[in-house]
Structure formats: C-alpha cells, structure tokens
Amino acid sequence: MDRRTFIKGGLIAGAVAAAGTAVGCAPSASGAGEPVAEEALATTGNTWYGEPAPLDSFDLVATEECELLICGCGAGGIVATATAAEEGVKAITIDKGASHGSIKTFVGVVGSRIDEQYGVTPDKMAVMNELTRYTNGFCNPRVARTWIEEGGATFDWISDTVADRGVNPFFETDTGSGFHGVWPVYPIQHGFVCDYTEEQMAEAQAKAGDTGDPAAMMHALPGVSDYLMDFAVEKGADVRYQTELVQLIQEDDGTVTGAIVKDADGYKQINASKGVILATGGYEADPDLLAELNPQSACIGGVSMAQMGNDGSGIRAGIWAGGVKDAIPTLMTFSRAAIAPDAPLGAPYEGNSCWMGDQPFLRVNMRGERVCCESAPYDYPLFVATYQPENKIATIWDANYQEHIRAFHTLGCSRIVPSESTLLDGRPNGEGLTFEANDMMIAQGMEMGIIQQADTLEELAEKLLMPADALKATVERYNELCEAGEDADFGKEAKDLLPLTTPPFTGAYFGGHVLCTIDGLKIDEHGRVLDAAQDPIPGLYAVGNCSGSLYAGSYPELLIGNANGRTVTFARHAVKHIKDNL
User: Fold this and answer.
1) Nearby residues of 142 by Cβ (< 8 Å), 6 or more positions away
2) Beta partners for 284?
3) CA distances (Å), 404 to each of 220, 350, 457, 463, in order?
4) Which intervals of the chain form a coiled coil (predicted)?
5) Tens digits of residue pLDDT in 472-522
6) Domains of the chain, start order
7) Model pTM?
C-alpha cells in the first residue's frame, strides 16, 4: 500500500429489443414462475449476453416511481447521485453490493481552477487527439471532447462540495521531460488530500485494529466518495444497497422507462419517468467472460484487482435494450503482478503485487532474450509478452536498483520516488510509493518464491528457468549499449540505459494487474447509449466502465487518471442532460 493512498481519502454485438417487454440481465435466483439466468444463457448459442425474460414472468412485490434510476454506486454512480440530489431530480440509486464504491486516487481532467492557480494549462486539443491516437481512431472524439471540455469544472465541483470536510485538491504538475520514451505526457493528474481530525484517526484505528496494515487503515478512514455520498443523503438521496438490476423496461417505441430490480424482499418494478443511468462497471470480475471477450489480455493476468460484482450485467442489460458494445476489447492492466517462474498466467491468478514491474529495467523472455524497448507505457511489455513463450517476460535488476529508479523518473501510479510537487499551501501531495513500501513488496515476493535473487547471472537464470548462457550474453550486450548511450537494438530512451553490473542480481516474471475493462456500451457525447444505427436509445445512459466509445485495445495510462476523469465528468453531465432534456 503506497503512502499516497494512505494519506489521501480515496479519489480510489448485437442487440435484442422486443417491443413492450422487459430487457436486460436475467436474475440469478430461481423460484416458482421465475426466470433462471443460466437457462436463459444456455439457449442462446454462442452469444455471451443471453436473452431477456418476459416481463410477466416476475412475481413483483412492489412498484415504485421516480424520475431517474441510477444503477451502480461506484465512482460514476456516486457523482450521479450527488448531482441528482443537488439538482432536485427525484432519483433512486441501487447497488447490488453492501456499500458504495469509491472515486479512485487520480482524476485526470483539463482546465480546472487549480490548473490556473499553478499556472500550468495543457493544450486541450493536444490531449484529446493523443487519446484518439492511442485508439488508432477507434473511438468517438465527440465523447472525448465532453471529457476535455467539462472535466475541469467537474473536478472543481467535487472540490467545492467536499471542501468543508477537510478535503484539499491538488494538481500533479511533474511530467518529467514531458515524454516517456516517445510517448508524450500531459499534466492532467489531479487528486485530493484529506485532513483528518484526531477523532477520525482514533475511530479508524479502532476499526483497523493493531495489524499495522496501511490498507486496513486506509479503508477505515473516510474519503471523497464517502463525503459526496453524505452530501447526497443530506439532500434527500434515496440509496439502496443489496439491490440488483435485473432487467430494463422499455415502451413500444424503445424508450427505457425503468427496470426490474431485486432486493431481499423480492422483485420490484421501478418506473423512472426521465430515464436510467447504467453505472455498473465492466466485466473484469468474471474471468471466464474476460477470457471469452478479451483472450489476448486475459492470458497475461497475474493478480486480480477487479471490483467484485463487475460481471458485465449492466452491459448485458444495455445490449438487450438495443445497445451495442465496443467491438475492440480493452483491459486496463499494469505490469505489477510478479509470478513464479513455473506458474502460469491467467485465471486463476497466482501472482503477487510488486511495483518493480512498472520500471523500465531490462526485460527478457524465458529463452533469456531481450524482447522490447523498455521505455514504454507500462502495459506495453505485457502485450509484447503475448508473442513470447508462455506469454511471460522477466524484469532483471541489480543492487543499484534504487539509483536506477530515481533516474527512470516514472510518473503516475508507477512512481516510487515521492514527487516534489506540493499543494498550494506547501504540503506534499503524497505521490509516490516510497522505497520502503517497494522493498517490502520485493521481500514478500522473495519469501513466496516468486522473485528470484542470486550472486551471479548464471545462478539467476537457473532460478528463472532460462538458459544461463543466453541471459549472460543478453546482459553483456545490454551493458554495452548502456555504455555507448544508444540502444541500437530497440531504441530505449538514453536516460533509462543503465547497466546491470553489481550483484546481487534479481529477477521476476511479471503479468498484469487485472484492473478493469473499459470496452462498454457505445455512447454519444451526452452519455446516451447508442443502438446499431448509432442513434441514441431514449431514456438510457451509461457512464464509467459500463460505457465505451473512448478506448480501444490499450488504456492510455500516460494520460494519467483519464478513465476516472471521464467517469465523474459523464456522470455529472448525464444527470444534467436528463434534467434539461427529458
């Protein structure tokens, strides 16, 4: 657990549409006269999303009315709920979990008030077009433009809403040289630092116990998401946990007017006169579905960081309402899952987290061969690995690794050396894992037999199950390139060409953190779900990882925090659009 996370409060197809019927995710429970999800899925051949159940097959215990139904209470649902409460929209928010989720640590936006205070203003169009370039054009730039134009104001609104709770916004301006290898880096990373009273700290300590685990303490402390939900409830928000979206309801013309939901009392119909927002996340928590829809990424997973319950049910509901999912699957994944030399990648995941995988050290395959330019976004080596034996490549470092990491100067959540950027009042923002936390991860990995260490390269190669002569020759060649200051083999950035000369030598194979899928339902610039003809489905919106249209193949991680930034931006935009237009 990094120092940053500890001290911050937590900013963590086809379509089937039957007129006049309920459409969406079939329920998981069975009973007399009730549909069964497994049976529905079994009858659909090779389509993963199955078929909807007839509306009259549900034994309803109640019917309720609202203006807006918000399905899901992660980052998008939290912001949508708070916005609806502020705007006076009568909304019901449901989540199948026992509590709300969180707004993640980084919020990537452009044009906030704090940008102006720091005097650093990135070019909005350059950022937008870099995101488009990252997808090779397989995106909707109009969707990107909404994030670009409104993200800063959304961040300002969050800042103002929680300011009286001791929450301080920050803007991480450090982008190093402005490039990571050949990839440009723009200063869009924002976040929050929370001040806590002695009473709050004491309460959190009591909840966390005496384990000394920073993660337990972090979870026990309130964060921005908690404060936003407090704000919403104070303004009358109706939030219901352990309540599952079952199916959407549509009129004969296709307009979405509510949903069937299920809670402890049974099935209920919630009519929503202004529409429904899907904020249910992606499908990464279902490893079988991930393997089916995105086999190229599923085979490199080593540690699951998925939010439980993100099983694609909201995307499924949107497809049954006539929506279309992004054609190109995209998993947000970082190279932080150290895995034993003889362990396979993919589910069930057998790795252990270690931030060394994000650093641009020498990378070799199981034959001891160097495989790529290491000065690249830190998911790229994972994709390179799919062209190597067993989809695995190893990272190699020596006793000088701390000195090398300082020279690498990686950014965002890969950063180990604490940032020197500060809040406007002079306090550090806490960005950076720290060497203490990183060394703890290395030690843990070694104790588990996942990370290997030796006094010679030959011995290290033996432990990594690769040919000793090949690894030794690779390191010798690499050191020659470092000495020359030019990587004639793969074009690694000169500042990252640092030789491996001092024992002990350490190495580990790295797979990916399985974070979240971001290839959801196609949307327009207002967050409206689109059908196969690219027309909006009346009354249906999607935000966050349940939505698509912005990513393809790989997450643009050097636009730091952009996924979270677009989530909160579209959640607020969608509610305002619904209020003003429906």
Assistant:
1) 524, 525
2) none
3) 35, 28, 19, 23
4) none
5) 999 999 999 999 999 999 999 999 999 999 999 999 999 999 999 999 999
6) 1-282+309-325+518-582 (3.50.50.60), 331-514 (3.90.700.10)
7) 0.91
